Amino acid sequence: MPSPYRALFAAPGSKGFSAAGFVGRMPLSMMGIGVVTMISQISGRYGLAGALSATIALAAAAIGPQISRLVDQHGQRRVLRPATLVALASAAGLLLAARFGWPDWVLFLCAAGIGSVPSLGAMIRARWAALYRGTPQLHTAYSFESVVDEVCFIFGPIVSIGLSTAWFPEAGPLLAACFLAVGVFWLTAQRATEPAPHPRGHQGGGSALRARGLQVLVATFVATGAIFGAVDVVTVAFADERGHKGAASVVLALYAAGSCVAGIVFGLLRFTGAPQRRWLLGICAMAVSMIPLLLVGNLPFLAVALFVAGLSIAPTMITTMSLIEEHVPRAQLTEGMTWISTGLAVGVALGSSVAGWVIDAAGARAGYGVPAVSGAVAVAVGFLGYRRLSRPAPRRGGTVEQHSEREERHVA
Q1: Cα–Cα distance measured from residue 224 to residue 378, given in angstroms and rounded to the nearest whole number
Q2: pLDDT, tens digit, for every residue of 300-359?
Q3: Rounded to 5 degrees, what are φ and ψ at 206?
Q4: Residue 170 CB coordination number (10 Å)
Q5: Are the CB atoms for 335 and 72 separated by under 8 Å?
Q6: Can 14-197 and 207-393 be said to share one CATH topology?
Q7: What is the topology classification, in CATH, of domain 207-393?
Q8: Which pTM does this prediction carry?
Q9: What is the domain partition of the chain in residue ranges?
């Protein structure tokens, strides 16, 4: 591992919470696709499978920020454990309902309950921020976490689909639930690195989404999520049309691998100047990288094009996390990070749905028009909101010590 990354783990407890975060984040990429595989194998109803996966994603988008707001107020241990128990109970109910053929409404009720799964990525980034706030190491830490995210998305679906098809249908979601339980309870047992809670009286009141800069970031990432959701669906259909459906997982893994490589390199660099400019450049690069997909004619070309397209993802996500720190009060940092995940989840649901409709109507190649249009929308929102991002919000609701620290850094 390059020395800047190795230096991250000199802080006591950093190895432990990072490892727990990796385990606890695996379900993010395993549960949805695992449910699709399970339901399609048991019942053959792909429509139901897709609807349940979308229900999990949308429920997580709705519930996740609320859980993170409670975490900011009361601490990770007090909130994450009960929220995780709800998600685990719901997952168990879903597996039993699928196995024994219970009514569909039970499946949807349990799928919605799985949405209470906490955003482990935001929890881990909040711990890094507590350790390295105001230092160059925080940029490296965010880069490392983006690489971890991509590793989860490279291997999670492969493991989940492989287990459900080779062992028994419920195996993928079952392992995802086990990862969640181990990750969350391991993380919350590590009290020394847990960020200090900020009771409601120390906050400005209301949601972190009231921050105008965060509104721009979330709106942009709805469009960005539509890119991801559409690319996944269209790539599977594209490979299927050419008689190699199984190759879709390899091609999509290269998409994530491109982001992983870029995240590693980006973390080694040190930047000066306004982060919002790098962020806007990253959004533009993501949009432009969708254009070659409209011209693909075979799977090798598609694999290369997606690998190149992936190079802009992690740097943009890393810069986004830095911008959240500038535009969201410290007492609401975890919630602010979770809102980005919410925007992505909503976008993924929209993008996959629209892409499916376009594929049915005009074929897979036409479906790549959906991520291209989504990229253009992301760029438009980014440019329209750029002035908001250029004006960092004051640290509303911080303590006097936090205000003084900010003023000292500004003078320095």
Answers
A1: 6
A2: 999 999 999 999 998 998 888 888 877 877 777 778 888 888 888 888 878 877 887 888
A3: 80, -175
A4: 23
A5: yes
A6: yes
A7: Growth Hormone; Chain: A; (1.20.1250)
A8: 0.79
A9: 14-197, 207-393
